UniProtKB/TrEMBL annotation, chain B:
Record's keyword annotation contains Transmembrane: yes
PROSITE patterns: NA_SOLUT_SYMP_1, NA_SOLUT_SYMP_3
Pfam families per the UniProt record, alphabetical: SSF
Signal peptide start-end: 1-20
Family: Belongs to the sodium:solute symporter (SSF) (TC 2.A.21) family.
Provenance organism: Azotobacter bryophylli
Protein name: Cation acetate symporter
Keywords, sorted A to Z: Cell membrane, Ion transport, Membrane, Signal, Sodium, Sodium transport, Symport, Transmembrane, Transmembrane helix, Transport
Membrane-spanning residues: 36-54, 75-98, 104-122, 149-169, 181-202, 209-227, 264-286, 298-323, 358-387, 408-427, 433-457, 464-490, 502-521
Membrane protein topology class: Multi-pass membrane protein
Length: 108, 553
């Protein structure tokens, strides 16, 4: 039901289009880099929590009662959200226009 | 000084209350007329929307996915609504109230799965799927067997989660509204049936959007009122919180709760990847017109969820000062004793303290609305697995009219509603914490591995997916039975054989391992065809060419 026979020829053409390879490469490079970044920063955070918690207990600024941990936690949430924004922006502009070109070129 | 006994309570039910409804056997409270009145207004509004949606719902596509006509922003709110359950507000704020920074760490853990879904899943889900996630998994694999399996995985998750929500709803409503437990369960069940049967995905999405707005507005207003007591300064708040809390300065950094890193790792793994295997969340990606809107919707959803979580952490810290030092919120006025209504009521007490009874009523009504919206989404996901996957595709091989399929969907919804009400009443006195472990365990170790491999791995075969999925399902089930929540709490043994609450750390890698090994060993002709079909699937996943289009309204 979901196998669109009518698209089979277009699919072959698209696969052979060098722009398609370019699209796949640049998109997966960005997606995996950002994933690794989020996952890496999060893992680092959890490692600090597990093995160097005193680092997060340090006061944030002179004579402050707020600890470093509070802004770090908040920054983690905001930072990974901003990366989401970066990806969505690239995908919705750069990748989508490339993809539209590729589809256009594949139509008979 | 702050009570330590209440802390135990919040900590104990953490895996349950953090994402699902709180597991508490609540005492019935006097009738809360403000809350009931405001809830009544919400119900009237949503019924009007259901009436409108019923007139828009003409095809199966309208019913399952709102015809793909939901915008990215609307869908972002709806996804955020699905994820921000009543208990995110109640559970996480209570956790910060009890444990301080440790609650914050958990909050971050609940959040971090969302960016990963954006980068790796959102657009492929939209480009490959139509009504259910089984569409994607069975794209190039054996339609009958894989669909049956995926539908079974969906239904397991949906049923467990429905029971959790129903029991939570009953307890919460008994507490907040002063209604009897069975009455509460039946009200939730019946309203859910009305939304889904008549309004389908259009009504379900709008109920979710309204509720998300109410929850965001209510939470933000509460945080602003609470922070006004501290001159909107986190520095002042920190100073007062440290003075008010029993463990003092320790609330500002990592504490004792993560003493067992493996337990924490298993839980955060289960939660982060479980989201990507929850059928009612996955279904949301099919309600937008194209991959562009799908991406936008996760961007908005992630923003709303992140913002809401930061608000909730603020609420927790403010409550340490405002609720924690006020004897009227403690049983017998004893600050060292338990909180009235149980350890999960922190946000509600805070609402009363800073906003009075009217605001408490508003927040209670919002909590009720939240549960309602989540169960409606679950019922719809379950019904589409039964009617679209099992009935229309597997049983009738796609030879079925839309009319007939819609009829089956509605019957399936009624069936699920009755099961939910029945089990909800049956489980009243049970501790359902284990069902949360099971829901997320099965989602992360059965649905998620099969789905992500189907999207990304060329060599996946039907045999590999079935064996791997079953390995994940069985191991998750077994580990939950051997975990403290079932082995000790339900079965009454002295010591759990499996020491962690969440099985994902073990069952998820096992599922992946079996998928890879069995697929690699599969030398059948069918396996060859399935691998070859990946190329076309890959082009469609990347470009969206051939993806299901939005229906014209």
């Amino acid at each position: 039901m979901d196998r669109p026979v009518s698209h089979a020829q277009s699919y072959d053409q698209i696969r052979n289009n060098p722009k398609f390879r370019q699209l796949v490469q640049s998109r997966s490079r960005l997606a995996w880099t950002l994933s690794a970044l989020v996952f890496g920063v999060y893992s680092l955070f959890m490692l600090i929590v597990a093995f160097a918690p005193q680092w997060l207990h340090r006061p944030f600024g002179e004579a402050s009662l707020l600890t470093t941990g509070i802004p770090v936690g908040a920054a983690l949430i905001v930072f990974s959200w901003l990366l989401t924004g970066w990806y969505v922006r690239s995908a919705n502009t750069r990748f989508d226009s490339l993809s539209a070109q590729i589809i256009e070129e594949s139509q008979p | 000084m702050r009570p330590l006994r209440a802390l135990g309570l919040a900590g104990l039910c953490l895996p349950a209350c953090a994402l699902a409804a709180p597991v508490i056997v609540a005492e019935k409270q006097p009738l809360n007329l403000h809350a009931i009145g405001m809830f009544f207004v919400f119900v009237l509004g949503t019924l009007a929307i259901t009436w409108w949606a019923a007139r828009q719902t003409r095809s199966t596509a309208d019913f399952y996915t709102a015809g793909g006509g939901i915008s990215g922003f609307q869908n972002g709110l709806a996804i955020a609504g699905d994820y921000m359950s009543a208990a995110t507000l109640l559970g996480l704020s209570s956790l910060v109230f009890a444990k301080g920074y440790d609650g914050f760490i958990y909050t971050v853990a609940f959040f971090v799965g969302w960016p990963l879904i954006t980068f790796l899943m959102a657009e492929r889900l939209r480009n490959l799927g139509r009504f259910t996630f089984a569409d994607i998994v069975s794209y190039r694999l054996d339609q009958s067997r894989i669909r049956t399996f995926a539908a079974f995985g969906s239904l397991t998750v949906v049923c467990c989660y429905l029971v959790v929500q129903m029991v939570g709803a009953g307890q919460l409503i008994k507490l907040l509204f002063g209604l009897d437990y069975p009455v509460a369960v039946v009200v939730v069940g019946v309203l859910m049936l009305v939304y889904v049967i008549f309004g389908g995905m259009i009504a379900t999405t709008w109920v979710q959007i309204i509720k998300a707005v109410l929850l965001l507005a209510g939470g933000t207003a509460l945080a602003l009122m609470a922070m006004s007591r501290f001159g909107f300064s986190y520095e002042t708040l920190a100073a007062h919180a440290i003075d008010s809390h029993a463990i003092g300065k320790a609330i500002m950094g990592p504490g004792s709760m993560l003493a067992d890193p493996l337990n924490a790792a298993s839980m955060s793994l289960g939660l982060a990847f479980g989201i990507a295997g929850l059928p009612h969340i996955l279904m949301r990606f099919f309600t937008v017109p194209n991959a562009k809107e799908a991406r936008k919707s996760v961007f908005y959803a992630t923003g709303f969820i992140g913002f809401f979580f930061l608000v909730v952490v603020t609420l927790g810290y403010s409550a340490i000062v405002i609720v924690g030092t006020d004897p009227q919120y403690f049983v017998g006025g004893d600050l060292k004793g338990a909180l009235i209504g149980g350890g999960n009521m922190v946000a509600m007490h805070l609402a009363k303290a800073v906003g009075g009874n009217l605001f408490l009523g508003f927040l209670s009504a919002t909590a009720f609305a939240t549960i309602l919206a989540v169960v409606a989404g679950l019922a719809l996901a379950g019904a589409s697995a039964i009617s679209h996957d099992l009935y229309a595709t597997v049983l009738k091989k796609g030879r079925v009219s839309e009319r007939e399929e819609m009829r089956v969907t509605r019957i399936a919804t009624i069936g699920l509603g009755l099961v939910a009400i029945g089990l909800g009443i049956l489980f009243e006195k049970q501790n359902v914490a284990f069902l949360v472990g099971l829901t997320f365990g099965v989602a992360a170790s059965t649905n998620f591995p099969v789905l992500i491999m189907a999207m990304y791995w060329r060599d996946l075969t039907t045999r590999g997916a079935l064996w791997g999925g079953c390995a994940g399902l069985v191991s998750a089930l077994l580990l939950v039975i051997l975990s403290p929540a079932v082995w000790v709490t339900v079965l009454g043994n002295a010591k759990a054989i499996f020491p962690y609450d969440h099985p994902a750390l073990f069952s998820m890698p096992l599922a992946f391992l079996v998928i890879v090994v069995v697929s690699k060993l599969d030398r059948s002709a069918r396996a060859e065809r399935e691998r070859a079909a990946f190329d076309d699937q890959f082009v469609r996943a990347q470009t969206g060419l051939g993806a299901a289009a939005a229906s014209a309204h």
